[in-house]
Amino acid sequence: MANTAQARKRARQAVKQNAHNSSQRSALRTAIKAVRKAIEAGDKAAAATIFQASVSKIDSIADKKIIHKNKAARHKSRLASALKALA
Question: Region entry Disordered: which residue ranges (predicted)?
Answer without folding.
Answer: 1-27
